[in-house]
Amino acid sequence: MNSSTIFYIVLALFVVWMLYRMFAPVKGLVQLRDESFRQKMEQSKHKRLIDVREVHEFKSGHIPGAVNIPLSQFGSRTSEISKDDDVFLYCQSGMRSKQAAKILLKNGFPEVNNLMGGISSWTGKRVR
Fold it and tell me: Which residues form the Rhodanese domain (predicted)?
């Protein structure tokens, strides 16, 4: 085997590993589609709805009742979220909110809900 073959094998393994990390299930993360996400929020007595998109994205339209904690600031702002609240996260497509959920779960939050497909899949009301 020459060095370029080894390089491509290592590159392919790295890509597969990254894809697995992006799409693998996360323990404690509840992935919900639009209707289920909305129903679970309505049933929750102590909910915290968080939009993890950047400020300019949030200002362009968000789910009513959401607070904006951008993923870029999330690690330093987890103290703003109570572990007693039912946490509901969303972003544009569901990927950034999944990353935010991982941060919360590592910090001892028992369960976190993520809107699959993000606000792009949301059919409910929006604040503009």
Answer: 43-124
Residue 64 in domain: yes
Q: pTM for the full model? A: 0.82
The pair of three-digit structure tokens given for residue 9, joined into one six-digit string: 């094998």
Active site residue 91: yes
Which of these is catalytic: 32, 91, 101, 104? 91
Q: What is the pLDDT along the chain (128 residues), one digit of tens a residue?
A: 788 888 888 888 888 877 766 666 677 799 999 999 999 999 999 999 999 999 999 999 999 999 999 999 999 999 999 999 999 999 999 999 999 999 999 999 998 999 999 999 999 999 98
Cβ-contact 101, 91 below 8 angstroms: no
- Asked if residue 111 is part of any domain, the answer here is yes
Is 116 inside any structural domain? yes
